[in-house]
Design brief:
The protein is of the alpha/beta class. It has 25 helices and 13 strands. The chain has helices at about 30-50, 60-65, 70-80, 125-150, 160-170, 175-190, 195-215, 220-235, 240-255, 260-270, 275-290, 290-305, 310-325, 325-335, 345-355, 360-365, 365-375, 385-395, 400-410, 455-465, 475-480, 495-515, 520-540, 550-575, 575-585; strands spanning about 15-20, 25, 55, 85-90, 95-105, 110-120, 430-440, 440-445, 450-455, 475, 585, 590-595, 600-604. Strands 1, 2, 3, 4, 5 and 6 form a six-stranded mixed sheet that branches. Keywords: Coiled coil.
């Protein structure tokens, strides 16, 4: 049974909207077109549910309600819905016309409308792309409307999500004053909801920016540490939030922890593969990781899904094209971007022009680069050009030496060279260590000391993690249970894809059964379809339901976390140095990992 969401519901303070997608009215549709329309509606529901901060009423609930129950104010009072997506599907000469209205539930006002055209038999990719486009536009409109409302309100009256929204806006202004204001907003969010993972992600971003852009400040060491600590804290609280995974991935990439950064970015894309802002923010990170073609594809998709994008899109999209040696395309994007978004903007523009043998034009950007460095990085002091270049090279974490060399070559053609840097210290040799089971005991040898421990399940978990440093292992795998097909919130990507394919098959079979008048078969298929949608809804977070304590994935998460922590505690008693190392290096949760701060080669 559903009840109205109360004002003090903690979940309500951390979301942009609670949306119900109502059954679209079907006007003059043939069975094939009706089948396409049903699949498209399901795709829209799923895409909305992937958006960070958006919650969606489970499709089986809204689809089962009689028309009278779908009146906006009634949906608001009964289920706590804040917005409805209402629409129609019509036959058109070109195929199928889709109309969608975004309605404010408590007032019934239409806030925004959109019309899309689908071919009569769209490919699955085209249908999913159209659904993602519609979801991006709906969610962008929701956030813009809410941001407009909260800008003028005092901080003391804001909810946690409002604080995140305003804080994120301040971070994009890229000034020291705005960064500080953003931190205050994120701290306010945590005072409202101490478990709000995204507020910790925001704090991480604010410290990351000061560390990466203003490394000469006295706070450098603290910002470096806090940016990672806050990002890790965010992941511990909610490892299913794609923004949290993106922030942690960015932090690792800029710290040159490329393997860990790659794993977090893959996870962010798995959770939200069609959110335009997330795709665009991830694109330069994949270019830094040495995959510029994949990065350029993400940027192109973000442009397609968000035609009315923010001004920072072109600048961000330029990095993948630069790394792919498409200098003309990179330059065109750089010239479309507003000036002075980031201090390196004019330097990269100069490098592109110089590499295209347009040296005179390139030289005009050198004083602009140095002026932006003076204002943004150097505290108003006159800059040393060599130091400015060194800062630029340090602030762009190219994984491939050839990408860094390309930027250095372009800058060198206009007289910008870095001061000689201290030789990079050789990476320390990996320390040899042992964690081996022998009989009924475990032998642990680390930092010149050995200890023997009783056999515990947590030791077996640790052995698996130590054997795969940097690899994220799902708690269900450690618990000895297959995750695929599980109805909990940690359903993996393959299981979700299989579930979605089966849903489409069932929709087609139901259409055939309805056409043939086979009511028994229609009812049987409908029951299976409802069960699958419920399963997928739980995995994707539809209806705003959190992970239930009786879900298999949540049981595994709790059990594995407890036994690993118990084992580490026992190890610390017998071998304090190893215990401390494991406390710092082992992460638990839905995914567990061993990420050592210094290289260790384990025999397990």
């Amino acid at each position: 049974m559903f009840v109205e969401v109360q004002p003090n519901d903690p979940a309500a303070t951390r979301r942009a909207a609670f949306i119900a997608v109502t059954p679209f009215r079907r006007v003059g549709l043939e069975p094939d077109a009706a089948r396409v329309g049903a699949g498209f509606l399901e795709d829209v529901t799923l895409e909305l549910a992937r958006w960070p901060g958006i919650e969606v009423l489970a499709g089986r609930t809204s689809f089962a309600l009689p028309e009278a129950e779908l009146e906006p104010r009634r949906m608001h009072e009964t289920y706590g819905v804040t917005h409805l997506v209402d629409g129609s599907l019509r036959a058109a000469p070109e195929g199928l016309q889709v109309g969608a209205d975004l309605i404010e539930a408590n007032s019934g006002r239409v806030l925004w409308s959109q019309r899309l055209q689908l071919p009569s038999r769209p490919s699955p990719a085209a249908q999913e792309d159209a659904a993602a486009l519609l979801a991006n536009q709906i969610c962008a409109r929701l956030n813009l409307g809410r941001l407009a409302q909260v800008r003028s309100r005092p901080v003391s009256s804001l909810e946690a999500y409002d604080c995140w929204l305003r804080g994120h806006e301040r971070l994009r202004r890229a000034t020291a004053e705005d960064d500080e204001a953003a931190r205050e907003l994120f701290e306010r969010a945590l005072s409202i909801d101490p478990t709000y993972a995204r507020a910790y992600a925001g704090l991480s971003l604010s410290h990351f920016k000061r560390w990466n852009w203003r490394r000469a400040t006295p706070q450098e060491e603290a910002d470096d540490r806090l940016s990672l600590e806050y990002a890790r804290r965010a992941e511990e609280l909610d490892d299913l939030d794609p923004i949290v995974q993106l922030v942690l991935g960015r932090t690792h990439v800029y710290r040159r922890n490329f393997a860990q950064g790659r794993a977090r970015l893959e996870r962010a894309l798995e959770l939200s593969p069609n959110v335009a802002d997330l795709l665009m923010q991830a694109a330069p990170l994949w270019a830094y990781l040495g995959e510029p073609e994949r990065a350029a594809g993400m940027a192109a998709k973000a442009f397609r899904l968000n035609p009315l994008h923010d001004p920072w899109y072109p600048l961000t999209a330029a990095i993948p094209h630069f790394c792919a040696r498409r200098l003309e395309a990179a330059l065109e994007l750089l010239e479309r971007a507003p000036p002075n978004i980031v201090f390196e903007q004019h330097a990269v523009t100069a490098a592109c022009l110089a590499l295209l043998d347009r040296v005179a034009e390139a030289r005009a950007h050198v004083p602009k680069f140095l002026e932006e460095f003076r204002v943004s990085i150097n505290g108003g002091r006159e800059p040393d050009p060599a130091r400015a270049v060194r800062q630029l090279l340090d602030a762009n974490p190219f994984c491939r030496d050839e990408d860094l060399a390309l930027l250095v070559e372009g800058l060198g053609r206009v007289g910008l060279t870095a001061e000689p840097s201290a030789p990079t210290p050789a990476s320390p040799a990996a320390e040899e260590a042992r964690f081996v089971r022998s009989g009924g005991l475990w032998e642990a040898a680390y930092a010149g000391k050995s200890a023997h421990l009783p056999d515990m399940k947590g030791c077996r978990d640790l052995a698996l993690l130590l054997a795969a440093p940097g690899e994220r292992i799902h708690c269900m795998d450690l618990a000895g249970r297959a995750a695929e097909g599980d109805a909990g919130a940690a359903m993996d990507g393959r299981a979700r894809a299989a579930c979605q394919r089966r849903i489409r098959d069932l929709q087609e079979q139901m259409a055939d059964a309805e056409r043939d008048g086979d009511l028994a078969r229609t009812e049987r298929l409908g029951a299976e379809l409802d069960a699958l949608i419920e399963q997928l809804s739980a995995a994707m977070g539809l209806g705003g339901r959190g992970r239930k304590l009786d879900d298999p994935a949540e049981k595994a998460r709790t059990a594995v976390t407890w036994r690993i922590r118990s084992a580490v505690k026992k190890i610390a008693e017998a071998h304090p140095a190893l215990g401390r190392h494991l406390e710092l290096s082992v992460r638990t949760g839905a995914f567990c990992a061993y990420t050592p701060e210094r290289p260790v080669r384990w025999a397990t």
